[in-house]
Every structure is written in structure tokens, then in C-alpha cells.
Design brief:
This protein is α/β, with parallel strands linked by helices. It has five helices and eight strands; from the N terminus they run H-E-H-E-E-H-H-H-E-E-E-E-E.
């Protein structure tokens, strides 16, 4: 175009001003490629949200700033409940890494069963806190779950406070 117009052309890339956040569904492997590209394109400071598929147990600089929900088994492995459960399952079954989420589900199902059997149905006002998240049973008997959110900062998982309103 420069030769056709006989003048130098200049272009300065800029990002849109109306973008509040970026939603990036995908696996950790995919997002490890995309986050650096966003930073290169000048969009590294826009909050980026992903699903729990984004975290495979390894935080790294490539995922810097990524915000995602997941179960405590994955994002809070040092919590006392998770540590106890991991130790018990490892002692009983050996390496539980590939089945960790399944053990977490079994643990919380057992907690929920025990609460219901004792006549304490977890409600929104008094939920059950497990390793899958916060659980309660609605009036129709459906179990609801809310997850915690985490952000990857400096290659480490940082748990985020729940939004105002409890969750």
C-alpha cells in the first residue's frame, strides 16, 4: 500500500477501551499459549477468567493473572481437610492424583449424607463446607454447590475472597 499511495504508512495497535474482562474457556495447555499472546498484544492487564479446566495442578508464569473457580482439592491443597483427605486416600489406595476429584466428590457426598441422616439439611443460611465447595439443599431437594475462585499470582495460587453477599 505504501508504494501505491507513495507515502509511508504507520499503524499503532491499540486495544478496545470497552473490554472489561476476557473469558477464556480451555485447558491449561491451551491457556499457557494464549495468556502470553494477550500480554504481547497489550491486553495483559485485562482480567481473564477461565473454567476449572484451566488449572491442572501446576501454576506457572504463563497463566499469570488468570482467575478461575475450582474445588479446594485443587486450589487449597494445604487446607487441613484436604491434607487429611489426601493422606487417608493415599494411604488406602496409593497415588490418588488422577482420581483426586472423585475422592473429593465421595468425601462431600459422605458429609452430605451424614448431615441429612442427622436431620440437618444444609440450607443457604447454613451451608455445608466441603472440599468440593459450599453445598446446600434447596426446598425441592436439589443440591447446589458454589466454588471458590483463585488467581495465579507470581506462579502461585492465591485464593480470592468471596464477593459481597457470601458467595
Amino acid at each position: 500500500m505504501q508504494s501505491v499511495l507513495d507515502m509511508p504508512l504507520a499503524f499503532q495497535p491499540r486495544r478496545r477501551a470497552d473490554v472489561d474482562f476476557i473469558f477464556m474457556p480451555g485447558t491449561a495447555a491451551t491457556l499457557r499459549q494464549w495468556r502470553p499472546q494477550l500480554r504481547f498484544q497489550g491486553a495483559g492487564d485485562i482480567p481473564a477468567y477461565a473454567t476449572s479446566e484451566a488449572f491442572d495442578g501446576r501454576a506457572g508464569d504463563e497463566l499469570q493473572g488468570l482467575i478461575f473457580p475450582d474445588i479446594d482439592w485443587m486450589i487449597a491443597p494445604q487446607s487441613p481437610v484436604v491434607t487429611t483427605l489426601r493422606t487417608a486416600t493415599t494411604d488406602a489406595f496409593g497415588d490418588t492424583t488422577p482420581r483426586g476429584r472423585l475422592f473429593a466428590l465421595g468425601h462431600d457426598a459422605w458429609l452430605l449424607h451424614a448431615a441429612l441422616r442427622a436431620g440437618r439439611s444444609p440450607s443457604p443460611a447454613a451451608p455445608l463446607t466441603g472440599v468440593l465447595g459450599t453445598l446446600f439443599v434447596d426446598e425441592e431437594g436439589r443440591v447446589h454447590r458454589s466454588l471458590r475462585f483463585a488467581r495465579i499470582d507470581d506462579g502461585q495460587i492465591k485464593l480470592l475472597d468471596p464477593p459481597d453477599g457470601g458467595g
